[in-house]
Protein: Large ribosomal subunit protein uL23
Organism: Pararcticibacter amylolyticus
Amino acid sequence: MEILKKPILTEKASILTEKLGRYAFKVDHRANKLQIKTAIEQMYGVNIEAVNTMVVSGKAKSRYTKAGFVSGRSPKYKKAIVTLKEGETIDFYSNI
């Protein structure tokens, strides 16, 4: 099971990072807080103070096509917000 799927790089997440030193990640829905903490510490070499998780429900999407009105949902996912110890940062762009 791959615990970390990808970092969330949105405006809201970048504001969290700048003001509070928190980082957001999309994670596997079966992963618990301890598994998320160890995965991030191993991957980025940082010390983690706290992990908060939430399940984000998918948005309802609809469109009108030749076949008629089509509606569905985007998939739900689990999000982890990680608080690092004072003075530590994660650079997402260093390993590109």
The radius of gyration is 16 Å. The chain has a mean pLDDT of 92. The CA atoms of residues 22 and 91 lie 12 Å apart.
